[in-house]
Amino acid sequence: xxxxxxxxxxxxxxxxxxxxxxxxxxxxxxxxxxxxxxxxxxxxxxxxxxxxxxxxxxxxxxxxxxxxxxxxxxxxxxxxxxxxxxxxxxxxxxxxxxxxxxxxxxxxxxxxxxxxxxxxxxxxxxxxxxxxxxxxxxxxxxxxxxxxxxxxxxxxxxxxxxxxxxxxxxxxxxxxxxxxxxxxxxxxxxxxxxxxxxxxxxxxxxxxxxxxxxxxxxxxxxxxxxxxxxxxxxxxxxxxxxxxxxxxxxxxxxxxxxxxxxxxxxxxxxxxxxxxxxxxxxxxxxxxxxxxxxxxxxxxxxxxxxxxxxxxxxxxxxxxxxxxxxxxxxxxxxxxxxxxxxxxxxxxxxxxxxxxxxxxxxxxxxxxxxxxxxxxxxxxxxxxxxxxxxxxxxxxxxxxxxxxxxxxxxxxxxxxxxxxxxxxxxxxxxxxxxxxxxxxxxxxxxxxxxxxxxxxxxxxxxxxxxxxxxxxxxxxxxxxxxxxxxxxxxxxxxxxxxxxxxxxxxxxxxxxxxxxxxxxxxxxxxxxxxxxxxxxxxxxxxxxxxxxxxxxxxxxxxxxxxxxxxxxxxxxxxxxxxxxxxxxxxxxxxxxxxxxxxx
Length: 599
Ligand code: ADP
Ligand code: MG
What we know:
- Helix content is 58%, strand content 10%.
- It has a six-stranded mixed beta sheet, with helices on both faces. The protein has a four-stranded antiparallel beta sheet with strand order 2-1-4-5, covered by helices on one side.
- It is an alpha/beta fold.
- The chain has helices at 3-9, 16-28, 36-61, 69-86, 91-113, 118-138, 140-143, 162-187, 189-199, 201-206, 211-237, 247-260, 267-281, 289-303, 307-318, 328-337, 387-395, 417-422, 440-445, 454-463, 469-481, 497-510, 527-542, 554-560, 578-583, 585-598; strands spanning 349-358, 361-371, 376-380, 402-407, 410-411, 425-428, 515-519, 546-550, 563-568, 571-576.
- The protein is elongated, with a radius of gyration of 28 Å.
- The structure holds adenosine-5'-diphosphate and magnesium ion (MG).
């Protein structure tokens, strides 16, 4: 198998057969023996699923919880109904308008909600939902209150049973388009970035992802999908009253998203199907509805934590499958296809009089260090000396209280972490940061900081050719450089500690760094693994990359570093060549002496 084959075989691609089947089903419905009730259910399925897909992207991918979807749903419904009723806008245009209203309000809430996470975000969105519901109830002049708006125009495309079939076509096509968009997001760099934001915002920022921007955009987009669902609902029923948009609706949508399987492609569709099925089953016992919903939700989640899509995946795994692992032959071919040489040019870093304290504890005290371009610069000192703090200041995770950091003579003190990453600062973490939801290869792909042009990327995904091909082959080549290419399709959780360390290193190399910050790269490794990392560091140095490395292992530090700076209690004691540092009395006192005494 050739390199091209293996690289393209690993590519996710648009499941066109399913889209064609969906389209056929929508178009064929008039000829199937269906009654008006089934058509009505199909319509309801279409717009509910749209709202659930939005929630799935928000919660399943970016990890943000919203209990206010009913509010955005209401905005779409009222926005669309009002312009269609009062201004006589054509229904499709009105629906687009209603969706826009939800997007705009969603963006505002999203920007505001950026300050909150998890439970607090859920509470904040719940309040937004309540506020919109109350406005809908009280602003009778516009919304009609609980009496509602009636005679909302419906969609008439002139298909046999005009009103309902026309609407079904419209809603069905909307769902298909939304599903395709969501699938692309799932498979592409967008979904990868959202997953990174969900698992670790610190990591995401360190690979150049503008976390706040992505969170706000996801929130707005998800609000827009709820709005689209609501707008379609308004034009299906021809009536909207404020009672329809209570927290029950928000919870129902959430149940559908969770029960279907968060973060999966088919989850929202399955979840919506289950939700509507439950509604039909318990239509007669309305009063206990929520209780029964809750019970079923809990039951399913205990038995199948990954929801209905998880069950489907288990079934699919039992069918004959295709394992896709690169073979040794293709890997050796890869080596020639992508050259790591000459991609990088080390940068020079100056740390000038930098200080940082944490509420009273002076962690770094007026430290100045000059790191030459292309050097491996060791940062050593006892625990608590301030090494990690200094690394975090260089990476932009912490703001320093005083002093400046310069990259090639340019002041970068005020730059954010993503901006520094884009200037060639890559790092690994003392406590490993890998994204567990994607495989090893995709973890390396996080290193490709620049986003591709979305339209071209989408077209490649759609055609199933060349999608992320260059990135994948480069990522594979880097993994091969580190001797872990055969692990490309494994998930981080399945890897040994040593391999995880190497994987993180591979990701950092993919960033085409000009400076790499390595925080304790061999801590916790056995001698063999440590030697491997040592040789990698030497090879990176040979490529010309500047490296700053924090490490306790003296053998490693003395054999790999060109220069060493010693910190103790936040102060720089000495900086110089390994020979000089080794002989320095203060170092022996403060550091080596101590460790020898305790050894
Ligand atoms: P090292 O990496 O050299 O072991 P650190 O930079 O982690 O040292 O820590 C330096 C000092 O700052 C220690 O006294 C530590 O307790 C303190 N410190 C580190 N991180 C924090 C934090 N997030 N909040 C408060 N104190 C911290
Ligand atoms: Mg540390």
